[in-house]
User: Fold this.
Amino acid sequence: MNSFMSWVGGKKALREEVVRRFPLYYERYIEVFGGGGWVLFHKNPGNDFEVYNDFNGLLTNLYRCVREKPDLLMGSLRYVLNAREDFDRARLALRRKRTTSVQRAAWFYQIIRQSYASALTSFGNQPHDLWADFPLIEQAHRRLARVVIENKDFEKLIRHYDRPESLFYCDPPYHCTEGYYSNIGEDGFTEKDHIRLRDALMSIQGKFLLSYNDDPFVRELYDAPGIQIEPVTRLNNIRQRYDPNCQFAELLIANYDLHERERASVQLNLFDFDMKETDYEICKRNHFQRPPDPHGSDEALWL
Assistant:
């Protein structure tokens, strides 16, 4: 399923590549830099324990309201105007200290949907019917019913949820693009934070999967024994208008075999083929009807 919202650096275009590289076994899934939650919403919920985290308190408040008070949230959004004046009023209103969690979530969602490129800073001048988002909010409400929502610093979160059966998916602000995230509710991400994240991940008991921009600093940061680095590309959405099919280079980094799921699938297919051969041998041994000849032979069907 899709996320109910867009977000700077969202993984809509890369979510399938990310999920395909999940390890075969894990019991805890922790999305450390939640953002728009595109990977969380795309993955199979299964029976694993799931955590959504983001350091942006406005964002986690919105997620909690979607999970716990969707009707009140949609009620607050029902008569929102798609107008610059209304957009500017909502941005100013978020500075108020005395307001309800639902009203803050509604203002924040309005700003996300009406801002240019979901950057939260300027009015997008694009028509958008918020009522059309209500089915997405209702779906997200059901999907988030059993998801733990946290608002923690990544290092504290990783330490808290680390177990041998934990999988941490991390999609931090990309190196040299941190300024894009210095918006409402965030204080920015520094080079020291990139190093702090590396140090936290290198000491865990569980597994981690990390998505980054393909950058020499990042490659050097994770150049260590037991760490796999795989380059991938996706469409560069920002440049599509001027340079169609332009690709953006990214990295997937993990402390486990990034292709173990793919290899297991191949082995399973070979096992299925062997089972078909075994069935034929059993049929022959017991004088049962022979399976149809794939080459269309007219020989008798009985052995």
Q: What stands out?
A: The CA atoms of residues 76 and 106 lie 6 Å apart. Residues 260-285 form the longest helix (26 residues). The chain has a mean pLDDT of 83.
